[in-house]
Design a protein that fits this description.
This protein is α/β, with parallel strands linked by helices. The protein is 43% helix and 17% strand. The radius of gyration is 17 Å and the shape is globular. Bound molecules: NADP nicotinamide-adenine-dinucleotide phosphate (NAP).
């Protein structure tokens, strides 16, 4: 799974799955740029990862930020071999009470943001490049209160197919990772204590056939595989890494 000397952009690389993927790509020899909205978070993560990681403050829901992100990646690397379009949000939308603002927040980040992230950096992606999208186990099940999040991730699943078909002439492959319930800050409630979060992790883990929540590194390993030529025959596919959550 060689990515030595390749260049990679990881959106939402300041936390959770994106951070684990950035670290794994970097540890396997890639030059990595990470994005996120909070510059503070990016700075502290870059210090932890080591000085060679490029940080770019950019909100994927902003066209101006996406354009600047492209410019900064071009300045740092010239071109890109790997894009992990990972940044996304998770919010509940119970049918009876969800408002339009919440609907828009989810769709703007998870669908529009991902589509236009790919569009923004596409001119930089070289022949033989790999684009990896982050969908979710939710794209294939019905879970109460998750209609909009699940639909947003089903759209991302579909993008992997369509974008692959569209980019095949440039020998750019597009695939998706589909995480199950992974222990990251996305699951933390605003005023939740550490004890409450641990209880949540136990409770959710017990709902997963394998008996626990996943670790971000378990998704990062799939990202590394899809980024490398080891997955050279995979196009438009979805790698499900969910401890059996959606599959069993
Ligand atoms: N954890 C799970 O159980 C799970 C399951 C299935 C799918 N996923 C997907 O995995 C992806 C990463 O989630 P995670 O669990 O790693 O969550 P996380 O730890 O909360 O990380 C989310 C990352 O995305 C960034 N981000 C959020 N909104 C953004 C925006 N508008 N523009 C740019 N960056 C943005 C965040 O940084 P800032 O806040 O500073 O912007 C952060 O770096 C998401 O797409 C999520 O839907 C997660």
């Amino acid at each position: 799974m060689v990515v030595e000397g390749k260049t990679a952009l990881v959106t939402g690389g300041s936390s959770g799955i994106g951070l684990a993927a950035a670290r794994m790509l970097r540890d396997n020899g890639a030059r990595v740029a990470i994005t996120g909205r909070s510059f503070e978070k990016l700075e502290s993560v870059a210090a932890e990862l080591g000085g060679d990681v490029v940080i770019i403050q950019a909100d994927i829901t902003s066209a101006a930020d996406r354009a600047r992100m492209k410019t900064e990646v071009e300045r740092a690397f010239g071109s890109l071999d790997i894009l992990f379009a990972n940044a996304g949000v998770a919010l509940g939308t119970p049918l009876a009470s969800a408002d339009e603002a919440t609907y828009d927040t989810i769709m703007d980040a998870n669908v529009k943001g991902v589509f236009f992230t790919v569009q923004a950096v596409l001119p930089l992606i070289r022949e033989g490049g790999s684009i990896i999208l982050n969908t979710s186990w939710l794209n294939q099940v019905g879970t109460p209160g998750r209609a909009v999040l699940s639909a947003s991730k089903a759209a991302v699943r579909s993008f992997a197919r369509t974008m692959s078909a569209e980019l095949i002439d440039r020998r750019i492959r597009v695939n998706a990772v589909s995480p199950g319930s992974i222990e990251t800050p996305i699951h933390r409630g605003r005023d939740q204590t550490e004890e409450e979060f641990r209880a949540y992790v136990e409770r959710v883990g017990a709902q997963v056939p394998i008996g626990r929540m996943g670790r971000p590194e378990e998704i990062a390993a799939a990202v590394l595989f899809l980024a490398s030529d080891a997955s050279s025959y995979m196009l438009g596919a979805e790698m499900v890494i969910d401890g059996g959550r959606a599959e069993l």
